[in-house]
Amino acid sequence: MATEIKIPRVGMSVADATIIEWQFKEGDRVEERQVVVVIETEKVRTDVESPASGYLHIMMNEGEAAAAGQTIGMLTETKEELAKIQKETPAGKPAEAAKSAEPVAAEAPASEAAPPKEAAPATRGEERIRISPVARKLAEEHAIDITKVAGTGPGGRIVREDIEKAIATKEAAPAPPKAAPPVEAAGERRVKQAIPLTGMRGTIAERMHHSLAISAQLTAMGEIDMGEIIRLRNNLVAQESTLGTRVTYTDILVFAIARILRNHPEINASIIDKEIKVWEDINIGVATALEDGLIVPVVKHADRKPMVEISKEIKALVEKARENKLSGEDISGGTFTLTNLGALGSGWTFETAIINQPESAILRVGAITDRAVVRDGQVVARPIMTYSLTYDHRVIDGAMAAKFISSLISALENPTLLLA
């Protein structure tokens, strides 16, 4: 009896997953709990383990998208059963598509039968070149002529390893002399680099555009005197060995925001199915910059955790993010997001952050810089941090946003009350 390999539901995500790489070839023997395929959904790569032992039949190719719960492969107990399934459902062709194509295929001559779906075919003379989508993309990025590459995959299919070898060979060869740059016509521009809008960058582009398209976003901006928070953090840093963590300003901000949201539940809400749902849980997302984009791991139940625990958890999540080890659960369920650009030296600046859907608000803060301010009629220098609160006006009124910010500023300028 055959066992299906399906796209798992990753956390609360309902987005399609992209098949990144099959770890075995068509017909290979796979043991239960071995990683059989790598998928990517909402900027997170996930290893999918084999649900059983058996011979692998691949139904969807690398680079294709599939919904949660969709069958992308099969595992058979015997090679005879594998051969039968391969005949009924060609490799790289989902069962639904194979069934709909059967009547047409039956009428066509055998020599004209449609080939299995894979990457767009190329030709080597009269010969059709079979190449995986991942290998084709890699070849295009490195200008590899695939007609000169010998495939080592099933049926001579060119796979990623073949292209990597070709790249290594190309890099080892002496570089040809550079040609003189062509004369450009007026108004033309030369392309320095073409970056495919795929993977994490593609997901970011899609989600940011979607967020702006479906919500009424408005941004409130201002300043916060961080003198008392600086004093608090210095005291906490001095106790690093005792606490077991070096507390950062991000840790303190997450701690403060989570507790202020208790008294402002209307901010901790989302529009779901034409209803404003006010969340019981307070889960704070912390925007984390990576080399190829941005990801938002989530501190769950942040209002119930002490600052030291929040600090340790944020450090663990950031480390997982940079090692590409976050799970779908790590980035799902957020109810409010903080993005702190202070470490990047952003200084006294204001920017409009885009809401991380389906949340209703995001707080962006900048670096703490000395600014001239008036205190008791005197101009003095104070450590000031800028903030920008973007909120969804469909859920949050201006007065609600003002009250939340006012409470947060009071807590940060008087942290004794916050800690009490």
Q: What does the model show?
A:
There is one protein chain. By secondary structure, the chain is of the alpha+beta class. It has 3 domains: 3-108, Beta Barrel (OB fold (Dihydrolipoamide Acetyltransferase, E2P)); 122-171, E3-binding domain (Dihydrolipoamide Transferase, Irregular); 200-419, Chloramphenicol acetyltransferase-like domain (Chloramphenicol Acetyltransferase, 2-Layer Sandwich), CATH 3.30.559. The protein is built from 11 helices and 20 strands. The chain has helices at 79-88, 95-107, 133-141, 160-172, 199-214, 227-238, 240-243, 249-262, 307-322, 398-413, 415-419; strands spanning 3-6, 17-22, 29-30, 35-41, 44-49, 54-58, 65-66, 71-76, 122-124, 127-129, 217-225, 269-272, 275-278, 284-286, 288-290, 293-295, 298-299, 336-340, 361-375, 378-392. It has a 6-stranded mixed β-sheet. Strands 1-8-6-3 form a 4-stranded antiparallel β-sheet. Strand 19 (361-375) and strand 20 form a beta hairpin. Helix 8 (249-262) crosses helix 10 (398-413).
